[in-house]
Each structure stands twice: as structure tokens, then as C-alpha cells.
């Protein structure tokens, strides 16, 4: 069973509404659903919430490091609680998926995502689960006539209102399949999630 769900993002009020914080939005919604609160845990370099799922401990983590150093928090918590990479689910923003789309997969490349690069370095393997929440790409906006924006600027800005609604819907879809996923029925979870979004 998955024992650790990490939401990726940047700490601080100034980043709370950035596209890059979609992972934080997901674990915040999950904590609310499970009726647990995040507490700052200095030894794990982040905010941690502990829940029970089917009588098993389930940890939620929001690293307090910036995105590029997310692996420090993930590595510290995994070592302390002896959690293996295959029991880890990282929830991330994904440039290569349109807002409203969510995908789940085990392993694979980092797609240039600095948070994933650092997690992979600290876990020593790419073989951990990812829930990818689409935020779109600045080239999509450019195709609609908006000015071309640098990727770094794009992820550190608030989504358009229509995009936010779509991202919120993909978070809800992810929460709905989580029970299947946590039970280990990963194929059924994937099928259901991937059928909800194009």
C-alpha cells in the first residue's frame, strides 16, 4: 500500500496560488477529506499530516524546501519511516498535460521537472508513483494569441480562472480514484482516472 503522498509546490503565501503548487492543492484537499491537519516537522523539512487508511498509516507531506530541493524532505521521511519508493506517490504539476487532465504512472523520466529530479536523486530510483495534474504549457496560450511566456514565469503565476476550474476538477478526479489506488488496484485506478479526462 502507498504509505506516503507528497504534494509538490513552493512554500510561502506568495506562491500559494502558483500553477507550480498544484501538488500542494491536492494534498490540502485530501487532508481536509481525511480530517487531518498539517504540522511543521523540522526533521522532515516540511509539513506532515498523518492519517489512517484501512488501518495503515498514511503520511501526507508538503516540503518546506523550494521545489528544486523537494527530495531532501522526501528522503528524510522515507528513511525515518522505512518507506520504499514503490510506496510513494508524488503529486505534481505537469506542463505537458492540459488543465483538467490527470494521469497516474509508475516510474519514467522527470520531463525536466526539478522537483522530480531531486526526489529521484534522493530515492536513488525513478520507480515511484506520480500523479500528474495538467497545468498546460505557455505555448498553448501563445497559440491563442497571448504573448509567449517563459516556462519559469508561467509555472510561478496564477492560472486563468477557467484553467483553475479545470485543475480543481482534475484534483477531484484524482481524489475519487485514490481509494482504488491505495488498495493496490492501480490498473483500475488508472483506467478510471484516464477515462475521466481526455
TrEMBL record:
Parts forming coiled coils: none
EC number assigned by the record: 3.1.1.29
GO molecular function, one term: tRNA binding
Site (Stabilizes the basic form of H active site to accept a proton) location in chain: 93
GO biological process: protein quality control for misfolded or incompletely synthesized proteins; rescue of stalled ribosome
Compartments, as annotated in UniProt: Cytoplasm
PROSITE patterns reported for this sequence: PEPT_TRNA_HYDROL_2 (PS01196)
Entry similarity comment: Belongs to the PTH family.
Subunit structure: Monomer.
Name recorded for this polypeptide: Peptidyl-tRNA hydrolase
Amino acid at each position: 500500500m502507498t504509505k506516503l503522498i507528497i504534494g509538490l509546490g513552493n512554500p510561502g503565501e506568495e506562491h500559494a496560488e502558483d500553477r507550480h503548487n498544484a501538488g500542494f492543492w491536492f494534498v490540502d484537499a485530501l487532508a481536509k477529506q481525511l480530517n487531518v491537519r498539517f504540522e511543521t516537522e523540522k526533521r522532515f523539512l516540511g509539513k506532515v499530516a498523518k492519517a489512517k487508511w484501512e488501518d495503515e498509516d498514511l503520511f501526507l507531506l508538503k516540503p518546506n524546501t523550494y521545489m528544486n530541493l523537494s527530495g531532501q524532505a522526501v528522503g528524510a521521511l522515507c528513511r525515518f519511516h522505512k518507506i520504499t519508493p514503490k510506496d510513494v506517490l508524488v503529486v505534481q504539476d505537469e506542463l505537458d498535460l492540459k488543465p483538467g487532465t490527470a494521469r497516474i504512472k509508475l516510474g519514467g523520466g522527470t520531463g525536466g521537472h526539478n522537483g522530480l529530479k531531486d526526489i529521484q536523486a534522493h530515492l536513488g530510483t525513478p520507480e515511484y508513483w506520480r500523479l500528474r495534474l495538467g497545468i498546460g504549457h505557455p505555448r498553448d496560450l501563445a497559440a491563442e494569441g497571448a504573448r509567449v511566456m517563459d516556462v519559469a514565469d508561467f509555472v510561478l503565476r496564477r492560472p486563468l480562472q477557467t484553467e483553475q476550474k479545470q485543475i480543481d476538477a482534475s484534483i477531484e478526479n484524482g481524489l475519487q480514484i485514490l481509494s482504488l489506488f491505495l488498495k493496490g488496484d492501480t490498473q483500475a485506478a488508472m483506467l478510471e482516472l484516464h477515462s475521466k479526462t481526455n
